[in-house]
């Protein structure tokens, strides 16, 4: 028998009237970046499906681990959640002193989207297609400057896999963010970069950089990228890199709250406006079983294993 005393003992968030106050979505990167954009787009739809106020809090630093740590240690009441990208799977290999356990300290709420990458180059690059670019890279090897947005960034990870796949080591040039990396690529200070469509689409469409391929297994439908072949069809069989985003709550969040959050997320992912906003950036909203907590967690578990091999082989770690 449920008594008044037992009801009062339940966490506030476990009551049927959840949510009663604003929900904070922690984004572990600075405002204006691609993950921040995903969070703000999703929040527009979640406000309707959860009938709640959503607040975005940017907690950048240490490759996204500071924001993730904050959520892992937050009260498990459903009012603080994390929106993170592929860094959830790569941080265990990249960082030796993580303040949380990726698979143990979070409740998995569902995957949101996948963002393919593009292989791009400075505007003065002479190569007219990927075949010519590959020959140029092979001829120059270590002289080739491969830019990335910093350790653990999407461009860093894609660059690692690209070098591993073609079995050529290049000179990697890390930057403190995508902005300065893209600025130097446009200016010709670096040669090539592999970065997500959310960062490259407008630059490609504006003719500011050259584009050679996408990293998805299928060609993309967005106007700026539709003509680009996949690296898989160009001969790098199985090459597939997508920067995915997922939603997480602190471990121990009551199941009724998790169920409401997951149900709200699933409904939000059906919002046509969200699809339009994300497709304009080359992102694809997830519509398969990974929107369910168990399959989301299994997916991240598999990604941890996949990227752990690549990162350890490269020997690039952070303290």
TrEMBL record:
It comes from the Bacteria. SUPFAM superfamilies: Periplasmic binding protein-like II. It holds the Pfam family TctC. InterPro entries: BUG, Bug_dom1. Belongs to the UPF0065 (bug) family. This is Tripartite tricarboxylate transporter substrate-binding protein. It comes from Roseateles flavus.
């Amino acid at each position: 028998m449920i008594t008044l005393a037992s009801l009062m003992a339940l966490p506030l968030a476990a009551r049927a009237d959840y949510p009663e106050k604003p929900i904070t979505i922690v984004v572990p990167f600075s405002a204006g970046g691609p993950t921040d954009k995903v969070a703000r787009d999703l929040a527009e739809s979640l406000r309707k499906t959860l009938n709640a106020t959503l607040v975005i809090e940017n907690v950048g630093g240490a490759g996204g681990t500071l924001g993730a740590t904050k959520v892992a240690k937050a009260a498990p009441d459903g009012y603080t959640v994390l929106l993170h990208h592929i860094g959830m799977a790569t941080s265990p290999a990249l960082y030796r002193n993580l303040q949380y356990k990726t698979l143990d300290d979070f409740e998995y709420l569902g995957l949101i989207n996948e963002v393919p990458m593009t292989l791009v180059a400075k505007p003065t690059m002479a190569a007219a297609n990927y075949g010519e670019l590959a020959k140029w890279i092979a001829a120059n090897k270590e002289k080739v400057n491969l830019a990335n947005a910093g350790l653990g960034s999407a461009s860093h990870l894609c660059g690692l896999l690209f070098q591993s796949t073609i079995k050529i080591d290049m000179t990697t040039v890390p930057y403190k963010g995508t902005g300065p990396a893209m600025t130097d690529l446009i200016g010709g200070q670096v040669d090539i970069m592999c970065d997500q469509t959310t960062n490259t689409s407008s630059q490609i469409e504006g003719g500011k950089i050259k584009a050679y391929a996408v990293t998805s297994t299928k060609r993309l439908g967005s106007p700026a990228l539709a003509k680009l072949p996949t690296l898989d069809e160009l001969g790098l069989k199985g090459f597939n890199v997508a920067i995915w985003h997922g939603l997480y709550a602190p471990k121990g969040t009551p199941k009724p709250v998790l169920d409401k959050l997951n149900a709200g997320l699933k409904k939000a992912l059906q919002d046509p406006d969200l699809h339009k906003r994300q497709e304009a950036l080359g992102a694809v909203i997830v519509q398969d079983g990974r929107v369910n907590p168990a399959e989301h967690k299994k997916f991240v578990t598999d990604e941890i294993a996949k990227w752990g091999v690549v990162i350890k082989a490269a020997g690039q770690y952070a303290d």
